[in-house]
Write a structure and sequence with these properties.
Layout (H helix, E strand, L loop, with lengths): L25 H14 L14 E4 L17 H4 L9 E6 L11 H7 L4 H7 L7 E6 L4 H4 L2 H11 L9 E7 L8 H7 L11 E5 L10 E6 L11 E2 L2 H7 L3 E9 L16 H12 L4 H7 L13 E7 L9 H11 L5 E7 L6 H8 L4 E5 L15 E6 L8 H7 L3 E6 L5 H7 L4 H5 L2 H8 L7 H14 L2 H5 L11
Parallel strand pairs: 2-3, 2-8, 3-4, 9-10, 9-11, 11-12, 12-13
Antiparallel strand pairs: 1-5, 4-6, 5-8, 6-7
């Protein structure tokens, strides 16, 4: 595989700053020098300005010099502009202290979605209509699902009141032979002053070299179920995406979070901004809202019923004896006042479809697990209630719920197998959580909602529906689709 021609553009006084020389092998540098000497016209000072695959220009605050938004670009890159601006590229670092894949809602969220606050604070986010997300791990982009694609994209986007007429999100892996993320990162600095960003334009490799490339195209009038469904680059599109030039925006991810994961929305207004971006990416779908609105048929004024959703996992750690659990719930939450439904996990569900299903839910009840990230679609305030396996307890979603304006509560299930009852009965929960082997053993069990668990849920619901709590939100409940 041959690396592209990567060379820094000339500074304004005609001197080549050489900022991208490190991309080239010695042989390629010699070839570049020969091409420059033989083919390129001279400028003042006897040096040559190159036509490059990576162009870097450092902005300056001095009057009359280049601004960060205006860069001299060779002709071959002009055609890559969309609405007068370049597509942008982010390098995403996948490594964490845990093993996970691109489909895991929680770990993708804590690695990438949690960067929303930092990118918003330092101006590293973007309003481009074509955004490329380059994962450093081959195959990772193919593991993503609808929820995790949204989590990756929402961190990098700026807040918009309305979705552009068309937004293209590109998820891919670029071979390091073409773009070296470490060297690119050296070319982009941020000292707290937005004007200190060095602008770097990168020409991507041929589309044929990007087998992991998947595109999500969002338009204003799309159905909710169709959003964040990817497609591969078709033969007809290949030419338009071949060797695209993109503006490099830096890298994010790969930062091991705090032990209690208390890093979700660090700045003032971060949670509000995040919810606004959710509304933009998943705009109101009126027919879908009308389909799932629940109204008390016995009420003369059409009073809306309270809603509880039991979210059932599809493979492991399922809510056991589901019918018995629903019977217990309906005894404590009368059907005349509460609509209780079960939603089964499907890996390929559109996040926008789920957002409409959950936007006015009062209680989301689920076994502990990645699906608790659905709290992002709940109204403020509301309750997420987790049922934990015996001898297993992690507060991971508690800090997120608190930062997001929700309540978080839970209960521990009794053991459901004789061997777990015997072995885990010999230790405490605190001891088990300090042992990796014990944690993995405990978390592999299903969970059961008992009378004791329902009593805990009733107490948590009373706190959630407390009028004093609603006064915190000026008496108005904030739903994604008020």
């Amino acid at each position: 595989m041959v690396a592209p021609d990567l060379h820094g553009i000339s500074n304004t006084d005609g001197r080549d700053d050489g900022s991208s020389q490190s991309f080239l092998s010695v042989q390629q540098q010699q070839q570049q020098q020969l091409r420059t000497r033989d083919d390129a016209p001279s400028n003042k000072g006897g040096k040559h300005q190159s036509t490059a695959n990576v162009m870097a220009a450092t902005p300056s605050n001095t009057a009359g010099e280049q601004s960060p938004d205006k860069i001299d670009i060779p002709t071959k890159c002009v055609n890559s502009q969309v609405d007068g601006a370049y597509p942008v590229l982010y390098n995403l670092k996948t490594a964490l202290g845990v093993t996970y894949d691109g489909g895991h809602w929680f770990h993708v969220a804590e690695n990438f979605m949690a960067q929303h606050s930092k990118l918003r604070a330092n101006g590293g986010n973007t309003d481009a209509t074509d955004i490329y997300f380059n994962f450093d791990k081959p195959g990772f982009s193919l593991e993503l699902n609808g929820i995790t694609r949204l989590m990756v994209a929402i961190a990098a986007m700026k807040e918009h009141k309305h979705l552009p007429s068309r937004l293209n999100l590109h998820f891919l892996h670029i071979p390091i032979d073409y773009v070296n993320p470490e060297k690119l990162s050296e070319s982009v600095s941020n000292s707290g002053n937005k004007a200190s960003f060095k602008q770097v334009v990168v020409q991507l490799p041929p589309e044929a070299k990007l087998p992991d490339h998947r595109i999500v195209t969002l338009t204003k009038n799309m159905e909710s179920k169709a959003r964040f469904v990817p497609h591969a680059v078709t033969a007809a599109q290949g030419a338009s995406y071949d060797r695209t030039c993109v503006l490099y925006k830096g890298s994010y991810g790969g930062e091991w979070p705090t032990p209690q994961r208390g890093h979700w929305f660090e700045g003032e207004g971060d949670a509000y901004s995040f919810r606004q971006k959710l509304r933009t990416l998943c705009p109101r779908d009126t027919p879908l809202l009308q389909k799932y609105n629940k109204v008390d048929s016995n009420s003369k004024n059409g009073r809306k019923m309270r809603k509880m959703v039991v979210y059932q996992r599809d493979l492991s750690r399922k809510l056991a004896d589901e019918d018995d659990a629903l019977k217990l719930l309906r005894e404590s939450f009368p059907p005349a006042e509460w609509d209780i439904s079960v939603l089964l996990h499907t890996p390929d569900a559109s996040p926008c479809y789920l957002a409409h299903l959950l936007h006015d839910v009062d209680v989301l009840l689920t076994p502990h697990g990645f699906q608790s990230m659905l709290l992002l679609f709940l109204p403020q305030p509301s309750l997420i209630f987790e049922v934990f396996p015996y001898r297993y307890y992690k507060r991971g979603y508690g800090p997120l719920a608190k930062d997001y304006g929700l309540l978080h509560a839970g209960v521990m299930s009794p053991p459901l197998t004789w061997h777990r009852k015997f072995l885990l009965g010999l230790v405490t929960t605190d001891w088990c959580m300090l042992s990796k082997q014990c944690r993995n053993y405990a978390r592999g069990d299903n969970v059961k909602l008992t009378t004791r668990g329902v009593d805990s849920l009733v107490r948590a619901v009373k706190e959630t529906l407390d009028p004093a709590l609603h006064q915190k939100y000026s008496g108005v409940r904030d739903s994604l689709y008020n």
